[in-house]
Amino acid sequence: MFSAPFDKPLPRQGDPRKFAQQGVHLAGYVPVSQLPRVRDLVLEEEGQVRVDLMFGISEEGKLVVQGSAAGDLVFTCQRCLGPVTLPVEADIGLALVRTEMDAKQLPRSMDPWLLPEEGNTELFPMVEEELLLSMPSVAFHDHPCIDEDLLSSGEPVEPEPAENPFQVLKQLKGSPKK
Ligand SMILES: [Zn+2]
Protein backbone atom coordinates (compact mmCIF):
# COMPACT_ATOMS: atom_id res chain seq x y z
CA MET A 1 0.00 0.00 0.00
CA PHE A 2 2.91 2.36 0.61
CA SER A 3 4.90 0.98 -2.30
CA ALA A 4 3.67 3.28 -5.06
CA PRO A 5 5.15 6.64 -3.99
CA PHE A 6 8.41 5.05 -2.89
CA ASP A 7 9.38 3.28 -6.09
CA LYS A 8 11.99 5.93 -6.87
CA PRO A 9 15.16 6.74 -5.02
CA LEU A 10 15.07 9.92 -2.93
CA PRO A 11 17.20 12.62 -4.57
CA ARG A 12 20.60 12.86 -2.93
CA GLN A 13 20.69 16.63 -3.05
CA GLY A 14 18.29 19.51 -3.15
CA ASP A 15 17.73 23.08 -2.06
CA PRO A 16 15.56 22.83 1.07
CA ARG A 17 14.78 26.58 1.20
CA LYS A 18 13.64 26.62 -2.40
CA PHE A 19 11.62 23.42 -1.77
CA ALA A 20 9.93 25.09 1.22
CA GLN A 21 9.05 28.21 -0.75
CA GLN A 22 7.61 26.05 -3.53
CA GLY A 23 5.83 23.56 -1.24
CA VAL A 24 7.69 20.59 -2.71
CA HIS A 25 6.74 17.03 -1.69
CA LEU A 26 9.55 14.48 -2.00
CA ALA A 27 8.99 10.76 -1.57
CA GLY A 28 11.44 8.00 -2.30
CA TYR A 29 13.65 5.35 -0.85
CA VAL A 30 17.19 5.52 0.46
CA PRO A 31 19.23 2.30 0.47
CA VAL A 32 20.57 1.50 3.95
CA SER A 33 23.98 1.08 2.30
CA GLN A 34 23.93 4.84 1.59
CA LEU A 35 23.57 5.72 5.29
CA PRO A 36 26.99 4.97 6.81
CA ARG A 37 26.11 5.66 10.44
CA VAL A 38 22.95 3.55 10.26
CA ARG A 39 24.91 0.85 8.43
CA ASP A 40 27.33 0.68 11.36
CA LEU A 41 24.48 -0.22 13.72
CA VAL A 42 22.69 -2.87 11.69
CA LEU A 43 23.59 -6.43 10.86
CA GLU A 44 22.59 -6.34 7.20
CA GLU A 45 22.99 -3.38 4.95
CA GLU A 46 20.47 -4.59 2.40
CA GLY A 47 17.11 -2.96 2.55
CA GLN A 48 15.69 0.47 2.19
CA VAL A 49 14.26 3.29 4.17
CA ARG A 50 11.12 4.95 2.85
CA VAL A 51 11.33 8.72 3.12
CA ASP A 52 8.48 11.19 2.80
CA LEU A 53 9.25 14.92 3.04
CA MET A 54 6.79 17.80 2.77
CA PHE A 55 8.52 21.16 2.53
CA GLY A 56 6.58 24.31 3.30
CA ILE A 57 6.08 27.45 5.37
CA SER A 58 4.76 27.20 8.92
CA GLU A 59 2.06 29.40 10.45
CA GLU A 60 4.83 31.45 12.04
CA GLY A 61 6.34 32.02 8.61
CA LYS A 62 9.27 29.66 9.12
CA LEU A 63 10.61 27.43 6.38
CA VAL A 64 10.01 23.87 7.54
CA VAL A 65 10.09 20.24 6.48
CA GLN A 66 7.79 17.57 7.89
CA GLY A 67 7.51 13.91 7.15
CA SER A 68 8.87 10.54 8.05
CA ALA A 69 11.60 8.01 7.42
CA ALA A 70 10.77 4.36 8.04
CA GLY A 71 12.12 0.94 7.30
CA ASP A 72 12.56 -2.59 8.62
CA LEU A 73 16.15 -2.85 9.76
CA VAL A 74 18.02 -6.01 10.68
CA PHE A 75 19.82 -5.78 14.03
CA THR A 76 21.78 -8.28 16.11
CA CYS A 77 19.60 -9.69 18.87
CA GLN A 78 21.38 -8.91 22.14
CA ARG A 79 20.13 -12.16 23.67
CA CYS A 80 20.80 -14.87 21.05
CA LEU A 81 23.09 -12.80 18.76
CA GLY A 82 21.00 -13.82 15.78
CA PRO A 83 19.40 -11.44 13.29
CA VAL A 84 16.23 -9.67 14.37
CA THR A 85 14.20 -7.41 12.08
CA LEU A 86 12.67 -4.40 13.75
CA PRO A 87 10.65 -1.53 12.32
CA VAL A 88 12.28 1.86 12.77
CA GLU A 89 10.25 4.98 12.15
CA ALA A 90 11.35 8.57 12.53
CA ASP A 91 8.91 11.47 12.58
CA ILE A 92 10.57 14.43 10.93
CA GLY A 93 9.67 18.00 11.86
CA LEU A 94 12.44 20.51 11.28
CA ALA A 95 12.79 24.25 10.80
CA LEU A 96 15.38 25.40 8.27
CA VAL A 97 17.76 27.78 10.05
CA ARG A 98 20.94 29.63 9.10
CA THR A 99 22.73 29.97 12.40
CA GLU A 100 22.96 28.37 15.84
CA MET A 101 21.39 31.58 17.15
CA ASP A 102 18.32 31.09 14.96
CA ALA A 103 18.17 27.49 16.12
CA LYS A 104 18.07 28.59 19.77
CA GLN A 105 15.09 30.86 19.11
CA LEU A 106 12.88 28.09 17.77
CA PRO A 107 9.88 26.96 19.80
CA ARG A 108 10.54 23.81 21.81
CA SER A 109 8.43 21.73 19.49
CA MET A 110 10.76 22.37 16.54
CA ASP A 111 14.21 21.02 15.87
CA PRO A 112 16.61 22.92 13.66
CA TRP A 113 18.07 21.84 10.35
CA LEU A 114 21.12 24.05 10.12
CA LEU A 115 21.69 25.17 6.52
CA PRO A 116 24.10 28.11 6.47
CA GLU A 117 24.61 28.14 2.71
CA GLU A 118 22.19 28.88 -0.08
CA GLY A 119 21.64 26.31 -2.77
CA ASN A 120 21.85 22.55 -2.82
CA THR A 121 22.67 20.47 0.19
CA GLU A 122 22.95 16.73 0.85
CA LEU A 123 19.59 15.37 2.02
CA PHE A 124 20.71 11.93 3.24
CA PRO A 125 22.62 13.14 6.34
CA MET A 126 19.44 14.77 7.70
CA VAL A 127 17.45 11.58 7.07
CA GLU A 128 20.20 9.58 8.74
CA GLU A 129 20.32 11.83 11.79
CA GLU A 130 16.55 11.55 12.28
CA LEU A 131 16.66 7.76 11.92
CA LEU A 132 19.49 7.46 14.43
CA LEU A 133 17.35 9.30 16.99
CA SER A 134 14.63 6.66 16.54
CA MET A 135 16.80 3.55 16.70
CA PRO A 136 16.09 1.06 19.50
CA SER A 137 18.75 1.26 22.21
CA VAL A 138 18.83 -2.54 22.42
CA ALA A 139 17.46 -5.04 19.94
CA PHE A 140 15.73 -8.29 20.92
CA HIS A 141 13.50 -10.98 19.52
CA ASP A 142 10.11 -10.62 21.16
CA HIS A 143 9.99 -14.37 21.81
CA PRO A 144 12.31 -16.31 24.16
CA CYS A 145 15.04 -16.97 21.62
CA ILE A 146 17.58 -18.86 23.67
CA ASP A 147 17.26 -22.21 25.32
CA GLU A 148 16.65 -21.69 29.04
CA ASP A 149 18.57 -24.92 29.81
CA LEU A 150 21.64 -23.46 28.18
CA LEU A 151 21.60 -20.61 30.67
CA SER A 152 21.21 -22.70 33.82
CA SER A 153 24.06 -25.08 32.97
CA GLY A 154 24.40 -27.19 36.10
CA GLU A 155 24.47 -24.64 38.87
CA PRO A 156 21.19 -23.54 40.33
CA VAL A 157 20.54 -20.06 39.07
CA GLU A 158 18.44 -17.48 40.82
CA PRO A 159 15.47 -16.62 38.67
CA GLU A 160 16.46 -13.45 36.93
CA PRO A 161 14.53 -11.05 34.76
CA ALA A 162 15.29 -12.23 31.26
CA GLU A 163 14.84 -8.70 29.95
CA ASN A 164 18.32 -7.67 30.98
CA PRO A 165 20.46 -8.54 27.96
CA PHE A 166 23.79 -8.00 29.65
CA GLN A 167 23.03 -10.39 32.43
CA VAL A 168 22.21 -13.08 29.89
CA LEU A 169 25.30 -12.37 27.83
CA LYS A 170 27.45 -12.56 30.93
CA GLN A 171 26.01 -15.95 31.76
CA LEU A 172 26.59 -17.20 28.25
CA LYS A 173 30.20 -16.05 28.21
CA GLY A 174 30.86 -17.29 31.71
CA SER A 175 29.31 -20.74 31.27
CA PRO A 176 31.95 -23.29 32.33
CA LYS A 177 33.37 -25.51 29.58
CA LYS A 178 34.62 -28.29 31.92
ZN1 LIG B 1 17.21 -13.47 19.86
Can you put this structure into words, describing what you see?
The chain is of the alpha+beta class and 178 residues long. The protein folds into 2 domains: 130 residues, no CATH class; 33 residues, no CATH class. 22% of the residues lie in helices and 30% in strands. The chain is built from 6 helices and 7 strands; from the N terminus they run βαβαβββαββααα. The strands form 2 sheets. It has a 5-stranded mixed β-sheet with strand order 2-3-4-5-6. Strands 1-7 form a two-stranded antiparallel ribbon. β5, α3 and β6 form a beta-alpha-beta unit. It is elongated. The mean pLDDT is 86. Zinc ion binds next to loops.
Q: Quick summary of this structure?
A:
It is built from six helices and seven strands. The protein has 178 residues and is α+β, with helices and mostly antiparallel strands.
What brief labels describe this structure?
binds zinc ion; elongated; 7 strands; 178 residues; alpha+beta
Topology (SSEs and partners):
Blueprint: E1 13-14, H1 16-22, E2 25-31, H2 36-39, E3 48-57, E4 63-76, E5 83-97, H3 100-104, E6 111-114, E7 121-122, H4 124-133, H5 148-151, H6 165-174
Parallel strand pairs: 5-6
Antiparallel strand pairs: 1-7, 2-3, 3-4, 4-5
The protein binds zinc ion.
User: Into how many domains do the coordinates divide?
Assistant: 2
Q: What class would the helix/strand composition place it in?
A: alpha+beta
- What are the distinct ligands in this entry? zinc ion
Uncertain runs: none
Distance between the termini: 55 Å
